[in-house]
Each structure stands twice: as structure tokens, then as C-alpha cells.
Fold these 2 entries.
Entry 1:
Amino acid sequence: MRKTGAFKAVSISKKIVDDFVANDVSFITTVPCKQLAGVIDEVEAREEIFHIPANKEDEGMGLCAGAFMGGKRPAIIMQNTAIGVTINTLATLTQFYRMPLPMLISYRGELREPVACQVEMAVHTKALLNQLNIPTYHFHKESDADELDAILKYTFMCNKPVAILTDASFWGGYGDQ
Amino acid sequence: MIRSEILREIAPILRDQLVVCNIGLPSQELHMIDDQPTNFYMLGTMGLSSSIGLGLALAQPKTVIAIDGDGSVLTNLGTLPTIANNVADNYILLIIDNGSYGSTGDQPTYAGKKTRLEAVAAACGCENVVTCQAEETGKVVQAAIDSKKMTIIVSKCESGNIKLPVITKDPVVIRDRFMTAVAS
């Protein structure tokens, strides 16, 4: 079972990054989360993508804003706790200047979560995104990722930040925990 | 010499480059002194001038000068390791260090006390860190452009502000005009 889960995570990570590349996303900043380790490895491995790890998510959004103005399509990969860190940046930079930003977000604190503290931000995540009028998609089953291609096209069509929440069930759980 | 005097003096050098300018008075001053389509004015989001500038420099080949302040760099101190580890030789970070939060009433920053940003930048791994006095800024910026090496400049000046209007241009207009200049 564990092997199957690991293979599933690898193939999902590959599919996600394939969709990024197919949509000409070539500048990706990341702040790590255990759930996102596979997709971050895949981003790092791709020649088509410039991967720039950020120390904090608002810094990463600044990098993405610059890359967008330089002619690249950017994306950020981060944990949902980052919504608490980046509200000001989302409102006064990404939204105010009307810039596109796909945000692939690990939705910690959902079903199968082993760390209680993660739930404390999970309960605010969708409410904050809703308050910010950020289009939000929630990947719970593997097949939900079939929409990623359309979500990316939508993001660069409307020049908005768009959130893609990916929960533990989507990633195949937490292994032994 | 105060920040607005530095900007007035280096405006002829900045005019031919892509400039990302820090929130508040620095953007208002540059806008008043020499508004150019190659200037990106930050109207909010304190701390991200250096990050926006780095992203821009990594994405395209033209020289980018990010104008930042000591207070803003302290707000986003994580930017310096990112800059050091992602070298873009078309990138210049000009930190105008007046030791105070100028836009909010000249409260002192830690850079005006014991913290030296040039030492922080070097400790983060930045390879070309130049400290200068306000009067030398133009010469140092021009040398950094000519060197085609990523350079962090810390220009030490006096605190103080001039009275001037806020920028009323629409942010999308600023961004679109800037992107057209970047792509031209």
C-alpha cells in the first residue's frame, strides 16, 4: 500500500508539473511543505523551469511579480499557512497591479492531518481566500487534478491570483502517520 | 545629503535603465523628479522592491536597478540570501540607507543603530557589496552598471524628506507602461 501511495504521489507531481510546462509557466518559487516535497523535486528537475526557493511566501510573490513583468509566467508553491503571511502582498501587489499568479497550496489541517496546530489555519484558509475574492479550487481526489490545465489557462486569462488547495487525501495521505 | 537629493543626482543614470522603486516617498520623489516608463513605482507592499527587481532581472536580460531603503530591507531580510544564491549579473540593488523609516516620520531603524546592512549582505553570500557616501552614489551606480556584475550598493545618507504629492497613476497603468518598456 505504501509503495502504491508513493507511486501515486510521483505520478501526480509529474502530471502537475507537466501542466505547468504545457502552459508556459517557466518561473516557480517555492516554500517547502512535507506534502509538496515530490512536486518541488519535480520542479527542480525540469529544465524548462527556473526554480527559485524563497525564504518567505511574500518574498516569493515579489519575485513572481518581477518575473511576470519580465515576460515569464510565474507560479508559487506553498503551504496554506502562507495565506496568513501574504494577505497584504496579494491585495496591494498581485491584485492591485492585476497580475496572474497560480498558487499551488498544500491544504494542511484537513482529514488525515497528524499535527493539531495545522488545523488552526485550515479553518481560516477558505474564509480568507473568499474574503480576498481569490478564485479557489480544492483538489481532494486524484482526478480533481484533471482541471489543473484549465485552471492555469483561466489564471493567465483573467490576471488574478488563483488558489489550488491540495489536501492530504489528494496526495495519498501521510504514509505511516 | 538626503535621499531626494541622491535621486535627483542619479536620475540621468537611472533614466536609461529599468528601475523598481520602493514604496512611499522614494517612489513619489522619483516620479516627481523624472517620471519614466522604465520606472516601476511601488504603491504598497513594503519590503518587496528587491524581490520584484530580482525576479525581473532573472526573467529578462536588461539591467535592473531596485531602489530600496534600509527599513524596507530590514522588513524583508530574507531577500539577501535569495539574491546571493540566485546571481543575476543584470541586477543592482541600491539600498539608500538613511537609518530611518522616512515615509512614516523618520523613526530610527536598526540599520541606523548597530546593524550594518553591508555586513549582513556579505554574510548572506552577496559577492559585490559596495558601501558609499551619498555624494558618491552616481559614480558607484554607473560603475556597477558598467561592471555587468550583480552588485549590492549601500549608500549612506542623512535622513530627511521633502514635501511632495502622492502618485495618483492607476497601478495597472504603471504596470502596463512598464511592461511595454521592458519588452521594447
Entry 2:
Amino acid sequence: MTTTHTDAPMTPAPTGPVEKTEQAGPGRADRISALLQQHGALAVLVIVSLVASFSFDTFATGDNITNMATSSAFLAIVALGMTFVIITGGIDLSVGSLFALGGVLAAWGSRHGTLVALLLPLAVCGLIGVVNGLLVARSRLAPFIVTLAAMLGARGLMLALTDEGAETYLVAKGSFLAELGQGTTLGLGNPVWITLGLFVAGAVVLRRTRFGQHVYAVGGNEDAAALMGAPVARTKILVYTLSGLLAGLAGALNAAWLASGVTILGNGMELEAISAVVIGGTLLTGGLGYVSGSLVGVLLLKVIQNVINQIGSLDSSYQQVVSGAFLAVVVIAQTWLGRRRQLM
Amino acid sequence: MAELALRTPTLDKDRVLQWLQKYGVYAGVAVLLVVNIAITPHFLSAENFRTQAVQVAPVIIVALGMALVIGTEGVDLSVGAVMALSASVVALYLGYGLLPALLVVALFAAGVGLANGALVAFIGVQPIVATLALMVGGRGLALVLLPQLEDLRNPTLASLGSGDVLGFPYLILVAAVLALIVAFVVRRTTFGRQLLAIGDSRPAAQLAGLPVRRVLIIVYVVSALLAAVAGVLATARLQASDPTSLGNLMELSAITAVVVGGTPLTGGRVNIAGTVAGAVLIQLLTATLIKHDLPPSWTQIAQAVVIVAAVYAARGRGKR
């Protein structure tokens, strides 16, 4: 067996909980690795965008940019909830199904008024989030398997509501909901503004509130957080609820934008959201993460997608190859940087 | 996860859960069989059993590899993508003959497994993320290689999918033989012991001088190879290569089979007989609901309930 790839041959459990408090050491290398961890994705985003705007005339046009912004908005909202969950060291695989369910519920509910159209998806998806949280926090089941079950269950529920996907509910034209999804303010689509608002709120909650600190504490070291008196179970239940709520909201907004509750949406969205969060510098082991990074991660994924679409000759499946490779590169870099910081 | 003894369940409940975790899956299969024989018309026919078994065989084959990976406290999300990839590769290289095509499939699958294993073992990436990257990339690669469904006209391949020995379809025989081999490896070989030791505690295994990295890489390669076998057999049965939808959600079915079969996600224990029974249980459940004209959405909801129930029964009994 070779040990060429590790710098510390007998360091046990490189996958185990790593110390992730931000005690930036004085070393320059350490600062650089911290900087890369936090802003690496942003740098790549800027570079890719610059190259793309020089290479393709159609990239940096107003239309293309607003289109990208709107189509990023929904994934970004889902990724925001996922960021909270991942910082606690968990994962939420149910968001794609909740996204589809939220859209169908919103479109169905829009027959009974805007209030129902907005509250119904939030209530149902939030409730599923609560169940996820309870099973993870109180029954101590693995987040991965609990939310996997929720993913199946929520998609089943969505199919049951739509006559096995055969029925597509429409959002009435000119209703407030349709305006919310399709209207623009100051040149940008309303979903974009809502997303930006949610991200600002999310960043404030995570950085400036007691709940936010608990989220980091639980992800950093759950036992230590419990000993310090942080409400571990409550924090976990809250983050899964938040993730469910945001996925439902994103689905509802998306349905409003498309003017219908499309049943085939959201497949694989959990993976996109996780990729975006990880690319944005949030560690999957929990305890360290940035809301802003997730936004950058989403934009980066969408820009790559857009670029591949611009290269007309390339099949859209190349996008998956590139996304997969990119994700691999990012996690390799992250793990390496994380280990450096751990050793310092 | 550390066990803070917040609540000590009563002995009785503990015992019931223990029993359920060990034998629940067999009890479930038995109950479904009895119920179906009682209420489902034409259930008790050789034709029906054959259909069910042929449908479940690929799931069993993939679940065997998944059980090994989960035994090391990992998970392999890329199995569905590997199935799609093997379908594409078979279609591309079938012109050179079946055997060369299968060899190339094996190479591709081994490559994916090596990548997974290297990410997990050498770089220390969490298995979920490492295999997620290969899942996304692998499916993409499959579609790049073969963008659309392609009919395959190869008599040898077709007979692989539909032929039988003494009435037993090849698919079932392959699944059964592979299950026996994997069970033997887990129970009776040094490799099996090492695998379980790593799942129990990777640091301890490392300190004990076990070849942790080598074992992990082999486990992920084996998982990918088994997924490729399932992919080739499924393609042979369809007589068409369908990289868009072949193996979709297969990772979930396989994980469900393993977990329902009593293998804890926390690693350190592998139950192969339970895994096979778990795959059969889910197949029977689906078949029952479909035969009684309940919509597929119910199947998904039922499957979700079964998963949560299985994990709940296994709660806190994985590692001690």
C-alpha cells in the first residue's frame, strides 16, 4: 500500500469530522488556502464569464443575462435551504421532489386564490421538512436515508395529485401569482429579486443570529454543541423545515413563471443544489459554509450550462460531463485545502 | 453518531426492533407472498414468478455491490450511471463482437470504480459526493457516446437476456451465482473481514495496518463492475441500448434493498441474504400494487414508508 498521496501517513480518519473553526493561522499559505476555499468559485465564475463574453457575441447581452438570472433563481432558492442543512452536517435529497410538488400545489391552489396558491405549497413542503427534521433529530436516523424516503414519498404524492402526472394545472393569466413569476421590476424578473432578498435574509440569519451560530455549532461538533447548551435537535428540525419551505417556494415561483405546475420538473435538482453548495465552498462535513458561495455556485453551474448551449455543436449531455468533472475537481481541492488547514 | 443515552427504550421494544431488523424482511416477503396467493388472480403461475424474478435480477446484482460499499460505511450513487454507460458502450462496440464489447464495458466500469475509489480512499472525499460527481458525469458520458435509444440486433446478446437453463432465465442464474460469491467473500475471506473492519472504524483499521485504501478501491470497482453486469443484462433483455433511462433511480432501489435487508448504513456489517430478500420485497410490493390497479405513485409512497420503517428498526444497532 502506498502513502504517497497523504502528507500525514497516519492521520486517522481523513473523512471524519475535521476541525473547521475559522482560526486563521498566521501563515501565508494558510491564508491563501482559506481565501481559495471561500472565493475560489467566484474567481472561476469571473474568469469563465469573461472568456465567454469574449468568445460569444450572444453571451454578454442583456437578454441572455436576464434569462440566466431568472433560470438561476429557482435553483438558488433551493440551494439556500440546502446550504443550511449541509452546514449542520446533514443533507436533503428531497428538495427536487418538493420543488415539483410545490409547483403542482401552487398551480392547483391558484384556482382558489393567490393566498392558497402560495400558502399550500409552503404548508405541505414545510410539513414534509418538519417530518424530515424530526426523523433526523429525534429518531437519530441518517439524514441521507430519511430525505431519500421523503424524495420518493413527495414525488409519489405529487403524482397522486396529478393523476399520475397526466394532469397539468395551469396558473391563470394576469393573476397575482402569474405576475409574481413572470413580471419584471427594474428590468429583472421578480423571481430574481425575491431570490436576492432571500439570500440577504439568509446571510443575516446565518451570520448574525443565535440560530445561525447554532447551525455552525451543530455542524462543527454535535456533541460539543450539545454540551455547550445549543439546542441541537431544534436546530436540526429548523434547518430541514427551512429547506422544505424554500424548495416548496421555489417550486411555486417556478410554476408561476411557467404558468403551470409541470410534473416532470425537479428530477436531479437535489444533486444540482448540492453541487452548487459544495462548489460555493461549504464543506459537506458541516461546520463551515457561506450563503454567498452557494449563490456563486448556482451562477457558475448556469453559466457553464449556458456556454455549452452557446457552443451549438456540442450536445447538451456534455454539460453533465463538465458538471461532474467540475464537482470532482472542487471536492478534491476542498479536501486538500481542508486538510492543510487542519494540519496548521 | 455518538449515542447519548437520552432515552432507554424498554427491553420489549428493543427486542421487537431487533427481531424486525433481523427477520423483518423475510417476514415481509412471506406476508406479501401469502397475501398475493390469496387475493391476486394468476399470481401462483410459473410465468408470473419468472416475470417477477427477471425484473428483480438487475436490482439484486446492483444491490450486491451496494451492500459491499455500504459495509465500508460508504455509498455508491453512480451505479445507475454505470448501467447507462455500459449500455452505450455495448451498443458502440457490438460491431467487433460481443466479447470485445463486454471487455470494453468492463474497462469503462472499472475506470468509474477506480475514480470513485481513488476519490474516497486517497483524497478522502465523502463517498456521497465522490460518487455523485461520477453519477452526473457518467450519465453525461453515456449520452455523449450514444445520444439516443438504439436497437441492438445481436442474437448472442439477445439470448443472454431471454435465454434460460432448465426453465431458469440466465438473469436469475447470474444474480444467484453472484449473490453466493459475494456472500462467500464477505463471510469467509480475509478481504471480507477487512472490508467490515474498515466499515466499523476506518481509523482503527488503518492503525491495525489493514490495507484500507486497497480494500476501498476494490470495493468501489466491484460495485461498478456489478452495475455494468446489470446494465448489460438489462440491455440484453430490452434488446436495445437506452442510455437516457436505463438505470435511472437504480441507486435508490439498490440502497433501499440493502437497507431493508438489514445492513446498517453505518457500516461494519453486511447482510447479503437480507439484501436479496430486500430487493425481492420491494419487487413484490410494487407488483402487488400494480396488479391491483393502484397507481405507481402509491408504490413510491409505500417504498418510502418501507425505507423509513427499516431504518427505524435498525436505529442505533449498527455500530457499538
